[in-house]
């Protein structure tokens, strides 16, 4: 039987779709403050939600023991709790489904010898990334169960970024099988794509910082951060100064805004340079898609700030980042050797 066949490609692309769904649900979970509703982690029994009133009361009683209920949600009724519980449970359920969808077909293809050695090695890396992503999810939630009812923005950014990178890596492996024959291209142009890719990754990390510190609820003006002022005089400064770059919500929002301009500029440069090159139809379409997506994503970012992160805009902005990373991954692959 032919190795690395279409079934393997469909399997990998199915994983990409599931990771996308998980990121969307994760965004809803974060924006609805649902992430700390399940304060324990049971790999098997946690798959099934409470099924009767007694089980719901037990789950609610456990939630009441932790800082989020005691400091923020002491007014919650059982019905309120059920609302936030659903999203965190659904988020974890999708994570379990992804694990099964990856491991079971992988073992099947491995047993049937339908994978080349190269693909096996790549899939083992994907398996490691998936396991690490699950660990980061638990590690993130744990940070919000101690003293403060908020998860660490560092851990949230790590959890979010790893999800994006796991998706990108899975897509890359699928593209390797879809386009096995690569040709030599302009190395300088490929390096420009890599630089743009790295800027986008840093931007995604800062998007996690913004989400973790709820920095999007501050400075809800554009193009300036405070009406007609570049930075308002009441913005506090942390000491030492470097903390303003990684812990100050105002500073983090400023960097996230600035990086948005850099992402747009880098992709515009790619598009402009590509006009001078002889490209395949797929390469040209990938560059054009980047330009369209980055413009749309920039607009979503501006609207998200102006309207102080309503749920639908916050999720749409995260989805836009996902599509942009997908297009960037595809473009880099099509301009690789």
From TrEMBL:
Gene Ontology MF terms: heme A synthase activity; metal ion binding; oxidoreductase activity, acting on NAD(P)H, heme protein as acceptor
Cofactor(s) the protein needs: heme b
TM spans (from-to): 9-29, 93-111, 123-141, 156-179, 191-213, 254-274, 286-309, 315-332
GO CC field: plasma membrane
Keyword rRNA-binding among UniProt keywords: no
Annotated membrane topology: Multi-pass membrane protein
Binding site for heme: 256, 317
Entry keyword annotation includes Lipid biosynthesis: no
Pathway recorded for this protein: Porphyrin-containing compound metabolism; heme A biosynthesis; heme A from heme O: step 1/1
Record field: catalytic activity: Fe(II)-heme o + 2 A + H2O = Fe(II)-heme a + 2 AH2
GO biological process: heme A biosynthetic process
Keywords: Cell membrane, Heme biosynthesis, Iron, Membrane, Metal-binding, Oxidoreductase, Transmembrane, Transmembrane helix
Location relative to the cell: Cell membrane; Membrane
E.C. designation(s): 1.17.99.9
Subunit and partners: Interacts with CtaB.
Family membership noted in the UniProt record: Belongs to the COX15/CtaA family. Type 2 subfamily.
Function comment: Catalyzes the conversion of heme O to heme A by two successive hydroxylations of the methyl group at C8. The first hydroxylation forms heme I, the second hydroxylation results in an unstable dihydroxymethyl group, which spontaneously dehydrates, resulting in the formyl group of heme A.
Protein's recorded name: Heme A synthase
Gene name of the encoded protein: ctaA
């Amino acid at each position: 039987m032919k190795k690395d066949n279409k079934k393997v490609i469909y399997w990998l692309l199915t994983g990409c779709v599931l990771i996308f769904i998980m990121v969307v649900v994760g965004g809803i979970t974060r924006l609805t403050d649902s992430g700390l509703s399940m304060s324990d982690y049971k790999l098997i029994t946690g798959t099934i939600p409470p099924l009767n009133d007694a089980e719901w009361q037990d789950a609610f009683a456990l939630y009441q023991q932790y800082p989020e209920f005691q400091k923020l949600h002491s007014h919650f009724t059982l019905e309120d709790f059920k609302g936030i519980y659903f999203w965190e449970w659904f988020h974890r359920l999708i994570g379990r489904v992804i694990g099964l969808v990856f491991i079971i077909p992988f073992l099947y293809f491995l047993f049937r010898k339908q994978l080349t050695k190269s693909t096996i090695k790549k899939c083992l890396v994907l398996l490691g990334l998936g396991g690490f992503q699950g660990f980061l999810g638990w590690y993130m939630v744990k940070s919000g169960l101690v003293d403060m009812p908020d998860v660490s923005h560092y851990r949230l950014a790590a959890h979010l970024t790893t999800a994006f990178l796991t998706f990108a890596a899975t897509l890359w492996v699928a593209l390797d099988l879809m386009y096995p024959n690569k040709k030599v291209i302009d190395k300088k142009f490929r390096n420009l794509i890599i630089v743009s890719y790295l800027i986008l990754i840093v931007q995604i990390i800062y998007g996690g910082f913004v989400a973790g510190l709820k920095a999007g609820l501050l400075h809800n003006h554009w193009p300036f951060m405070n009406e007609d002022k570049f930075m308002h005089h009441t913005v506090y400064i942390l000491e030492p100064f470097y903390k303003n770059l990684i812990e100050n919500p105002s500073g983090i929002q400023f960097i996230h805004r600035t990086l948005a301009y850099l992402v747009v500029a880098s992709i515009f440069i790619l598009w402009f340079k590509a006009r001078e090159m002889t490209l395949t139809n797929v390469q040209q379409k990938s560059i054009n898609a980047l330009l369209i997506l980055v413009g749309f994503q920039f607009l979503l970012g501006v609207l998200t700030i102006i309207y102080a992160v309503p749920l639908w805009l916050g999720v749409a902005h995260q989805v836009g980042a996902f599509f942009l990373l997908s297009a960037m991954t595809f473009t880099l692959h099509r301009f690789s050797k």
